[in-house]
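Box 3.1. Reading complex inputs
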Amino acid sequence: MTALPRGNFLEDFKPGRTIRHGTPRTVTDGDIAVYMALTGSREAAQSADTTAKLCGLTRRPLDDWLVFNIAFGKTVGDISHNAIANLGYAEVRFLRPVFAGSTLRSETMVIGLREINTRNAGIVHVRSTCLDETDTPVLSWVRWVMVPKQADGRRIDTQVAPELLPLIPPQDIESHARLGSANALRAWCQATASTKLWDDYALGDGIDHPSGMTIEEADHMSAARLYQNTAQVHFVPKTMVANEAGRRIVYGGHVISICYALSCEGLENRIHVAAVNSGKHTAPVFAGDVLYSKSTILDRQTIRHRSDIGLLRLRLIGSKAHDPEAAGGGLTVLELDYWAVIPRRHG
Amino acid sequence: MTALPRGNFLEDFKPGRTIRHGTPRTVTDGDIAVYMALTGSREAAQSADTTAKLCGLTRRPLDDWLVFNIAFGKTVGDISHNAIANLGYAEVRFLRPVFAGSTLRSETMVIGLREINTRNAGIVHVRSTCLDETDTPVLSWVRWVMVPKQADGRRIDTQVAPELLPLIPPQDIESHARLGSANALRAWCQATASTKLWDDYALGDGIDHPSGMTIEEADHMSAARLYQNTAQVHFVPKTMVANEAGRRIVYGGHVISICYALSCEGLENRIHVAAVNSGKHTAPVFAGDVLYSKSTILDRQTIRHRSDIGLLRLRLIGSKAHDPEAAGGGLTVLELDYWAVIPRRHG
Amino acid sequence: MTALPRGNFLEDFKPGRTIRHGTPRTVTDGDIAVYMALTGSREAAQSADTTAKLCGLTRRPLDDWLVFNIAFGKTVGDISHNAIANLGYAEVRFLRPVFAGSTLRSETMVIGLREINTRNAGIVHVRSTCLDETDTPVLSWVRWVMVPKQADGRRIDTQVAPELLPLIPPQDIESHARLGSANALRAWCQATASTKLWDDYALGDGIDHPSGMTIEEADHMSAARLYQNTAQVHFVPKTMVANEAGRRIVYGGHVISICYALSCEGLENRIHVAAVNSGKHTAPVFAGDVLYSKSTILDRQTIRHRSDIGLLRLRLIGSKAHDPEAAGGGLTVLELDYWAVIPRRHG
């Protein structure tokens, strides 16, 4: 019986190396339904073809985070199979809407490498791209992970610092959404049952999203399996030294999906995520935890040549208590700084 | 941080007021598959295109209760977000089959209002309608809920008693199902593996459906999320004063789905639900409960101008024990009085 | 209240009798998505239309075990409703790929009957066939179950021994998969991210698949419901004398799906299952168990007139520990001896 080689170690991540990940995945209405059942997502444009048409799309696209999680899942076997920690995200760009019937695959380039002081591990930065069946990029992102060295412990000579934007500039952002007329905007607001538009959010505004969601083992494992994510830490209680809890750890992308879905109340007119400036899982989530969300408006920007839609920069905080401060703090699990596209009041 | 206003209170329900609920929802084969996985539904016409064609439909329609639950879910945020109790249903009319690809939305009219003696709450009657993307009604129903007043406690002056039919008259019922020939009926009975037709049920007949189903937290929450139902009581253990159990309460529509699916054995030839005369959740259901069903034939009626199909009026009792009387009683969770369409023996 | 007759007893299984099972089932992209979410399946040809086209199929087919489980589920009510044990499988032949949109039904012939010594039960052999909407067989299999007699206890006169092949001869196996060119093979290997082909496996090779999967009640019940399998032992903790554990027993087909999905690592280029020579559930699986897989190459054969693909005969062992011997043995839950189709290196 030979054990299989499993994933890559620090030595394998040569800066500049590109990895084409396995198992392209056709996405369908089935994935959309399972995603709704697992996350409770109810974004307007993603829920109905009729609503999607109001903002210029041919039919409802997949949820942004469903696309992200499927794209991310493809990279796990090569990038984070041996990861000690998934440290952060940056430069996440949602480039095109993805529709049922598309086939998605991912590829990844190593863009940074740094040994840590103990020399038994290092931090690897990678830029991944998700492409559809025509090889058109639909999503790209940077993440960095801590990866152990293999047993030999040789010193890594080439250390490369990644070039990262602290913020995706709003002038770089485009959107396929288009609210072509005052009538379309009116019908859109009827569909979302909300008239709170881009114009109505002010810098510093906070939104205390009222709903919570209890996490179940069956739910987070089903989500990770839907994404064909193979990281053992989500499926088996005791897998690695780093998993001190001895429990299955909820896949971080599922935490994002849940917290984002909870943040719908108060942001009903959000059309889609345009980009994520930075993201961090600040604590592990386990089955039995109840997650809540809060949002803060960090910025409000226009989009070039567009008067129908605008950008809100939002900070989404996910935590294990509705009022984490009252609960003694330390319960934050997610920090996400992102740009959302939202309709503007018609001139 | 501003907390969001949440749903409506007693003072907001002006009789005659109509509310157009948010977030239209396109339904697909994905929803059908998830519904099967969560409920075990195996109604013949809803399981296969070939079987649906035998009764005159172009393809398999969605399960009646899947449509009901999605339509109902749309109304929760506006109608029952603050409800102390969901007291009952009446005049539920399944008007048209719904197929994958349709987009459903709901609207609701307030048809009754009555303060209760303690004056801190009242009973609101509403009539909701689910419409497809062409604004054609596919389903309508009345329900009544107990809703608290807001803090101010002003007296409600206008009290309106709703006009309700105790029974949907069989002469009002139409059906899109049509078994056009003796051959179609024969093929239908082959598909259901049962020859027990309308003609074979007698008034007062009882059917002790043998199967039970254990309820899991992941299942009932996935069902409520699939329906985009946002009532917190299904997702968070401790949410409201009324939830004395301190546990998540299973969404009532999931209880109906499960009990109805269990009632398939012995009613294999049921084609669809035509109408519900009255419905009541008599006790809350929690994860870990095992549900069972019993049916009684209350009436048998013909449909105008139709000799191929007829109506059975059935009482469906859902309970937490296979033999609730032997178990000491008090275990009933659901009472449903409905009309089902079922083929008649060919003249 | 009349209790319903439930399934068949030993006396009902007359050798030569054919049973047409109820409730044909249309399969869709929804079923594929739910199956992925419940099992984590990531077979290459079943995951993407583009990959399926590389091996000559018009689009991705359903997973072999999804087809098997739906087909099997149809037979449960008539064959194994009263079964004391599901003893084994043989001669499982996957005859044609099944695509979304097909409607499947099953029928079964009794091919063997033998009373056991205690005379209160017997062993029934049946051969079942799954047919699509054109009555074309897509799958056939033999299984045998121990079934109790009814109360009367009359002696069974006719005992018939089934004729069973110990092994499906490789010369009997055909495959719809076709890798038409060296380019197609290259693209296929890019899709699977593996270059390990038929030529690279040697007799006796063992593969220690590294991943495990924890089983949840919600997951195995959702799987059994998706397959419209009505066996109570999967849904209710205490149902029958034979269920000494007093717990829900995981449906054996779900165990096969999980163990097969876990065996993907190391067998990434497997295109589909061609046939199962023998199968056995050696111990019941319960929620909370963590399942692992090991594979051994038993044989390597060519397919008549085909140089693009070949056959591997594999033994798949599923168990409740990654290293069952170290854990004291006795943890094996599944033994499956099957033929898989896999590409050959281009001449």
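In summary: The mean pLDDT of chain A is 93.
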